[in-house]
Write a structure and sequence with these properties.
The chain is α+β, with helices and mostly antiparallel strands. It has a domain of about 130 residues. The protein contains 7 helices and 3 strands. Helix 4 packs across helix 7 and helix 5 runs parallel beside helix 7. The N and C termini lie close together (about 5 Å).
Length: about 200
């Protein structure tokens, strides 16, 4: 009985340790090279269409992988702490010289700014969104910002997105922290009851 409890505890600790490690994933790229073979000319009968192995024998399949790794990330716990310390009154609605933000620019803030943040700002720069949980991946190819260049991204980030996203994520994380405490305590209680049941 004690051996099962100790084994269960080790498994839970291993899962928690594995969750904190850097995530590396591989995206397969399949390249099909046709082999130069004399092709038959004419109309094929229905019986020849059913044999798919011949089609594969005329091509060579080469599978290679692109590896991606975590360039930087902000965990949900770190984002909650940063959101709790964030004072929205200290953040201006917009900066001098920015002008009015268009509806299209505000849509960029909602859907694309984080992708450009991952492309333009690496881990050695100060994190502009410490209150927004996210993970940035880096691959073998140089990324291209959706705003067309990093200078335009910085202008949109500072002029349109920063206050809007800070306000939204402070509200989201403050709501989730109240619910999260109850959810975490229920999870812990259910694990303890399960271990006690064994």
């Amino acid at each position: 009985m004690r051996g099962m409890r100790a084994g269960l505890l080790r498994a839970v600790l291993a899962l928690l340790a594995g969750a904190s490690a850097d995530v590396i994933f591989r995206v397969p790229t399949v390249v099909v090279h046709p082999i130069s073979v004399a092709k038959r000319v004419g109309i094929e009968s229905n019986s020849s269409r059913g044999n798919e192995s011949e089609a594969w024998s005329e091509a060579e399949v080469d599978v290679s992988y692109e590896e991606y790794f975590v360039e930087h990330d902000v965990s949900t716990a770190d984002a909650k702490r940063a959101a709790a310390a964030l004072k929205l009154d200290d953040i201006p609605e917009t900066q001098d010289g920015c002008g009015e933000c268009t509806r299209r620019e505000m849509e960029y803030c909602e859907t694309r700014v984080l992708a450009d943040h991952c492309c333009c700002e690496r881990r050695f720069l100060p994190e502009p969104f410490p209150w927004l949980p996210h993970t940035c991946y880096m691959g073998p190819h140089r990324c291209r910002p959706l705003a067309h260049d990093c200078v335009r991204y910085v202008r949109l980030r500072d002029c349109c997105c920063y206050r809007h996203l800070a306000d939204r994520w402070k509200a989201i994380l403050s709501r989730s922290s109240r619910v999260g405490v109850g959810g975490a305590s229920l999870l812990l209680l259910s694990m303890l009851l399960f271990v006690a049941y064994l």
